[in-house]
Amino acid sequence: MSTPSSLPEHIAIIMDGNGRWAKERGLPRRDGHRAGAESVREAVEACKELGVSYLTLYAFSSENWRRPKTEIDALMLLLDRFLVDKLDELDRQNVRLHTIGQIDRLPPKNQKRLAGAKAKTANNTGVNLILALSYGAREELTEATRLIAEKVKTGELAPGEINTETLSQHLHTAAFPDPDLLIRTSGELRLSNFLLWQLSYAEIVVTKRYWPDFKKADLLAAIEEYSRRHRRFGGL
Ligand code: FPP
Questions:
Q1: What single DSSP character describes residue 5?
Q2: Domain region containing 42
Q3: CB 109 within 8 A of CB 64
Q4: Residue 163 among the catalytic residues
Q5: Tens of pLDDT along 159-170?
Q6: CATH code at position 48
Q7: Would you say the pTM of this structure is higher than 0.85?
Q8: How far apart are CA 171 and CA 188, in angstroms?
Q9: Residue 85 annotated to the active site
Q10: Residues 85, 37: contact at Cβ < 8 Å?
Q11: Has residue 201 been placed in a domain?
């Protein structure tokens, strides 16, 4: 795969359209999610080939808890299967797994599997794959505010010392650079409570493709769009 001239260090993706993909084929929604998991595998591989260091995927939002229990169960099972089936491959590819979101709300089985996968890949130095699970930016910002308030209360921090860096350091993403590029599939023009603080300066690329149809060539096209915009601004 040829590398575009300016590469984002961190790509974040709102993976949307699994349900519509399935509906168009007369399939149950869970088949759309299953096909979406294959696109996840391909996106990680493409990031490795291109040299993208961070990939954050919106796999389950705080709002997704409002979906029918059968769909939530299917998504949790899919996540579990993904980790069972793909962990060795991810590890071989030098991928390091991270999570953001309220992981303690996930079923214990998923929590255990995620902890195991994170531990197994902890020393890997290739792509950092960050799964946003039970994630909501407003919840994350509220939690950060609470943590900061506690520190002020105990005297560890003075109100006058609080700056943007303080807030960044109390988010789930404290260890990662902000995304340079946000991709949303299936055409919707919304942020949907995803990384509201961290996306402040990100370039946004929206594609009409449903997530299960989003392949390496589509990722490359989004990066090329990012490079074009980046070159223009960089040249001023
Ligand atoms: C949005 O499609 C997608 C999700 C809510 C879940 C994303 C999950 C996956 C891609 C599969 C598993 C992920 C991993 C990490 C193994 P939608 O259901 O909102 O689609 P619709 O808007 O067309 O109904």
A1: S
A2: 10-136+178-227
A3: no
A4: no
A5: 999 999 999 999
A6: 3.40.1180.10
A7: yes
A8: 26
A9: no
A10: no
A11: yes
